[in-house]
Amino acid sequence: MVSAKTLEQKEIKSYAENWYVTPEDIIRDIIFPAIDKRVIKEYGGKEASGFGWQQRRVENIVYNNNHSYDISLRIQVPDSNNKPFEYAEDFVKVRVSPSCDSPKIGCNQGRSFRVQTYIRISKGKGITFKIGTTSF
User: Fold this and answer.
1) What tens digit of pLDDT does each residue of 30-60 get?
2) Quick check: 92 and 35 in contact, CB under 8 A?
3) H/E/C letters for each residue in the chain?
4) How many angstroms separate the Cα of 6 from the Cα of each of 3, 11, 43, 94, 128?
5) Phi, psi (5° rounding) for residue 27?
6) CA gap 96, 27 in Å, rounded
7) Is the Cβ–Cβ distance between 63 and 69 less than 8 Å?
8) Distances in Å between the alpha carbon of 57 and those of 64, 99, 130?
9) pTM exceeds 0.85 for this model
10) How far is Cα 36 from Cα 18, in angstroms, rounded to an integer?
């Protein structure tokens, strides 16, 4: 006879009372794992780069004809020499493909989050904030 252990179901609670979440926060949570892996690959497998990068802003979101989305954003990655306040600025485009479980969506891909484009814009410079520019 095999005894089965029942799992207790955890109650899901809101993160904090009166905490406002933006659509950008939701997008970030969805695509972060794909970006983590790519940043670590780009910066020589250093775990610190994967954990230390931070998103600056979403540049663009494009809806494609296969029901996927291309989300372009800028990120800052810590300097590889561990210099405080020195970051490289990079551009990342992630393709988000939803699951096609619904007959309402006419697509044939499975759910995925893939980095499509990764461009290193600058190397280890001090933090700079450019307002109103999107050129690189």
Assistant:
1) 898 899 889 888 887 666 655 678 888 889 9
2) yes
3) CCCCCCCCCCCCCCCCCCCCCCHHHHHHHHHHHHHHHHHHHHCCCCHHHHHHCEEEEEEEEEECCCCCEEEEEEEEEECCCCCCCEEEEEEEEEEEECCCCCCCCCCCCCCEEEEEEEEECCCCEECCCCCCCCCC
4) 10, 16, 44, 39, 53
5) -60, -45
6) 10
7) yes
8) 21, 26, 11
9) no
10) 29
Are 31 and 113 contacting, i.e. CB atoms less than 8 angstroms apart? yes
> Which residues have C-beta within 8 Å of that of residue 94, sequence separation ≥ 6?
31, 34, 35, 70, 71, 73, 113, 114, 115, 116
